[in-house]
Amino acid sequence: MFHRIRKMIRYAFRPAARALLSRDLCFLSDGTGGKLIEFDPSSGSADLSRQASLYVHWPYCLRRCTYCNFNKYIPRENRDDLMTECLQRETETLLQLSQVSSITSVFFGGGTPSLAQPSTIAAVLNTVSRQVKLSEKAEVTLEVNPTPVGMSKLEDFYHAGVNRFSIGVQSLQDEDLKLLGRDHSAHQALQTIEEARRLCPGRVSVDVMFGRPKQTVESWESELSELLKVCDDHVSLYQLTLERGTQLFKQVQRGEVTVPADDVTAEMYQCARRTLQQHGFQQYEVSNFARHSAVSHHNMSYWKGRQYIGVGPGAHGRFALLEEGGVTREARTQTLEPDVWMCEVQQRGHGTRRRIKLSHLELLEEVLVMGMRMTEGIHHKHWELFCPELGLYEIFGTSIEVQEFLQSGKLILDTRGLRCSWEGLALLDSMLPALLVELERQISPRLQKDYAADGKTEKTSIM
Ligand SMILES: C[S@@+](CC[C@H](N)C(=O)[O-])C[C@H]1O[C@@H](n2cnc3c(N)ncnc32)[C@H](O)[C@@H]1O
Ligand SMILES: C[S@@+](CC[C@H](N)C(=O)[O-])C[C@H]1O[C@@H](n2cnc3c(N)ncnc32)[C@H](O)[C@@H]1O
Ligand code: SF4
């Protein structure tokens, strides 16, 4: 089970605290084919099965950073026009399949989406608006590599409809940037932040990485403090993960480069949390911090288990398909390789490589793993949306192991719901297995009873 969860969620954020990572779920069935209705104080009740966020993957980079194994390619020739056409076409197809009537946020990630033409961004956004409601206020984020070219295009991206920039700063040490294989300097990153803040004040995020070669807790603390002097209201922390197959992995294996030990990295994480707090940032998720409520709505929708559609090579999605006889929930992955993906989109309108129907238990596992990443944790009402048959107290209140986490103050289960304490959030990864085991222990017998009564079995893999 854990292997599956790890595999399914690994695309998203790198965990600052090595917690089981982000992934999402979707879906909104009460198990009887009914609709999931959530009460949102700002907009009243919302039928979440008719809403989704949209992730769009731009798969190209100018070069490979030494540590990165995300789905990215160095293009041999410029196929940007065809890529744009295919992104539009797949957006159309998946919007139709999902039957959503509104898109609540859009995230252009990659790869390096700031290499795309602003007209590509505008074209995809137009495709969305032609088909469904895309509110003018919807968050539209673009990831930006802080190179001079990236910076010079920010204004055009803004006019194309982007209203939030996420800038891959990674480090403010030029020497480290070189070792990481980044194609920008610290000075260029600072200039890009300034320009992005001019265009989208209060809506600029920076990605910064710790656990890097040669880094010490002290150097990290002063680097982060420097960054906090110039950054805007959102920071994402990435703990460097040594990924098999990357250049950095080989360098470390050959002993040419060393990375800080685990206990040092753990101290770096705690140090960053303290420093960010001192600068007025609130931690709202394992790796994410915001000032003045500038949380990322797109990412929140993942952690809250809302539906999302993933378009582009290697993109992931979670959405419900309306099929004969009721609602099914699916995890979708698009074909990884851009040329193959483009052929598929031209031939059949989409490049979906894998669809997995999530069982009720799998859905609840996702809600748990994702929800516990947020500092607010899982509210009773939120849990009830997905699991009306069994509450958080009933599932977790009697387990001896969970009781130990509660008594030691790592977990909190109260009238609000289930969440990690400050100390517990850094240890989430070590607590999740016990929580998942307890969930399965409580839910499986009920499911078996229900299925025996109905005479049906759960199917998971579709293609
Ligand atoms: C996949 S990149 C895409 C955005 C953009 N190309 C960039 O580099 O900022 C998103 C984030 O993932 C981070 N990342 C990629 N590989 C990582 C690794 N092995 N460990 C930690 N963070 C990683 C990047 O540094 C970046 O901040
Ligand atoms: C979640 S984003 C970083 C968010 C950023 N720190 C912010 O707050 O705006 C990091 C990376 O996750 C990956 N990612 C996010 N959503 C995805 C999806 N639905 N499918 C595939 N990859 C996704 C992309 O590679 C993206 O560059
Ligand atoms: S620019 Fe971003 S996506 Fe491209 S290789 Fe570097 S970290 Fe990976």
TrEMBL record:
GO MF terms, alphabetically ordered: 4 iron, 4 sulfur cluster binding; coproporphyrinogen oxidase activity; metal ion binding
Keywords for the protein's UniProt record, in alphabetical order: 4Fe-4S, Chaperone, Heme, Iron, Iron-sulfur, Metal-binding, Mitochondrion, S-adenosyl-L-methionine, Transit peptide
Subcellular location: Mitochondrion
Superkingdom of origin: Eukaryota
Protein name per Swiss-Prot or TrEMBL: Radical S-adenosyl methionine domain-containing protein
Biological processes annotated in GO: porphyrin-containing compound biosynthetic process
The keyword S-adenosyl-L-methionine belongs to this UniProt entry's keyword annotation: yes
Organism expressing this protein natively: Xyrichtys novacula
